[in-house]
Design brief:
The chain has 414 residues and is of the alpha/beta class. It has 16 helices and 13 strands. Keywords: Signal, Transport.
Length: 414
Amino acid sequence: MKRKNHFVLFGILLLALINLSPSLPETSQTGPRQEPDEGSAALRGGESRQPLREIEVYTMMGTSEFNVLKALNEEYQQRSGAVVTLVNIAPEQAYKTYREAYAAGREPDVLMLDGAWVADFASSGRLLPADLYEGGAGAASDSLPISAASVEWNGYRWGVPLDFDPYGVIWNPEQFTTTAGELPRNLEEWRSWEESLLSTSEKAQNATKPVVGFSNGDVRAFAALIALWKGTEQEESEQSLDEALALADHLRDRTYLHGVSVQSGQMLSDFRTLVESDELPLAVDRLSRLGTQDTPISRLAPIASSFKTAALRGLGIAANTDRVRESSLWIAYITGHENQSSWYESTGHLPMLRAIYDEPAYLSLQRWIPDAQVGRSAADSKKTAAREGSWSRSLDRFYEGTLGIDGLAEFFQP
């Protein structure tokens, strides 16, 4: 009888022990564990929490590259189960549209921002500090050196760099015989080149033939052109700037201003065609529109100082959103290595992750990576976004002949 009681007592204790033990996850399985890929890892940020809520993202892209982003977004939605609504705005209208959305209290959860706008939006309390992002979206240790100023203000980071589009110069080497097909190195050589284009017999009929081109109203392209003329051998000084602006004034009637539609989706601008057809000796434009390959009749090179004005884009989270987790995971997916490695082929814009340029397929792009010393300062970037519109109008007036070089000098004032 005692033995029977002992068995009963043992059974009761065993049941109690089982009830107190932690249960195994329902999804557990036997066999070796497979490591998930990077994209899946970024999406696991909340498996044990509530499902991902819907977010809205404002972008500012051309048609063809927006289609690339839509494809990536579709993949993200399928893998995460989230709903992400993309709203694309013409780049030239984005700054105004964003500000109007904030003023009306209908800002999105995530915004694509030009690097020149970040300080403006951050100082106005419109962005969330990147330190509060989740899912690793705020990491910056492996970004290119130029990305810091594009997302920083007041000692904090306010977004995640996505890509950049530096300015380059394309030229016809046959039009530079005085420098053996290479570009002049200083203002004196540039002036000699300009004079050499016109022989005595051709001077009358070719007096107004364009010798240089850039996109109409593109103040950053104009700044890159001035940097090119100032040359690599000259130090930054007011004198070299004044001389470069004087050359712009001298070539005012011989400058081809090309209208480029950012919504056209065209990857190569007409400048390459004009240069290779011997209709224009050289032009300055963004890399995404010029391509990166030299040909027997055209050469292409980055303008080192133009990295200070390169078009950089980043992704930031609106300060008032209650969907930081969802926004962070989406940004981490879009800017992660898995997607950034093919971003250049898809959009023509260079990725921000430094490690990508060490991959065999991207070694030729290393010459477009700026030196850390060439990084641009964010000290006055709060003013840049608001001033660029007026700069563009002033540039138009200059080439219309109603504004002198003194007015142009304001472009370069802090």
